[in-house]
Design a protein that fits this description.
By secondary structure, the chain is mostly helical. 77% of the residues lie in helices and 0% in strands. The protein contains 14 helices and no strands.
Length: 273
């Protein structure tokens, strides 16, 4: 949804009640980490980002709440075509600067600065921030995630795969590890590396077998590889998970149309003999 969603979020912030403590607190950090994880689960449903914002507001630290807003705005920023409006980046940076003014030396806040630069395509600045933060804490999980975003902007498949694998290894929870499996699979798919994407999706399905989106991605791979039988099998699984899942129905309809044309073509050939 991109800028439209960002504008809705920013408008809602005018009615927000902010935590009392301006700096960082132990409770604030704990709720902040939960909120970051919720925001990372965003895949197009605004309710996921709304839940993350409520979590950030539920802590007792303004600095973490402000940083959480910046993170949510960046998560909401990409349009369907992957572009990001410059005003969204500016708004995220403003919220981040408010957080940094209250807590200037917190790596769990400052890593967002690298993301702001990545999304603004100021990659030299992003690299400088990342290199500095690696020296501060080489074990900080979200630096691995920021590296993935950095190399995605560089369109470097080898580095994206490398950092996805490192991020998965650094993850503290199974949902985090599952997300990295999914990101890795999506990366292979985006690069049309279907032989690598297919087992990556199947690994994710092994952990989350009732996810219609994963099954639909498997169907898309088989569709691209012109394997109608496996496409149909994967779509059947997707619709078993969610009978109303629109992307699965789109592929099912395309497959039926393909079969119809194939049948018509064969009959036409018979009548021309």
């Amino acid at each position: 949804m991109g800028k439209k969603l960002v504008d809705q979020i920013v408008t809602s912030l005018g009615r927000a009640t902010w935590p009392a403590a301006p700096g960082t607190t132990a409770l604030g950090r704990k709720t902040y980490e939960i909120g970051l994880d919720q925001a990372d689960g965003y895949r197009g449903d605004p309710k996921q980002l709304a839940a993350a914002l409520r979590t950030f507001m539920g802590g007792d630290s303004q600095a973490y709440a402000f940083a959480g807003v910046a993170y949510v705005l960046l998560a909401a920023a990409p349009e369907n075509d992957g572009t990001i409006d410059s005003s969204t980046i500016e708004q995220a940076q403003q919220w981040l600067e408010k957080a940094q003014a209250n807590a200037p030396d917190q790596i769990e806040i400052n890593f967002i600065e690298a993301l702001v630069y990545v999304y603004a395509q100021r990659l030299d600045d992003a690299r400088m921030v990342l290199d500095y933060l690696w020296e501060v804490d080489p074990d900080f999980y979200y630096l691995y995630a920021a590296e993935v975003a950095y190399w995605q902007q560089q369109n470097d498949l080898e580095q994206i795969v490398h950092w996805c694998q490192r991020a998965s290894a650094a993850a503290a929870t199974n949902p985090q590890r599952l997300r990295w499996r999914r990101i890795l699979a999506d990366t292979y798919f985006a690069f049309a590396a279907y032989d690598q994407a297919l087992p990556a999706y199947r690994e994710a399905i092994h952990v989350d077998p009732q996810n219609p989106e994963l099954w639909t991605q498997v169907a898309r791979i088989h569709w691209q590889m012109d394997n109608d039988e496996e496409t149909e099998r994967a779509i059947h699984q997707a619709l078993r998970c969610d009978a109303n899942y629109p992307p699965a129905h789109e592929i099912a309809a395309a497959l039926q149309e393909k079969k119809k044309k194939h049948t018509t073509g064969r009959l036409g050939g018979l009548f021309r003999r």
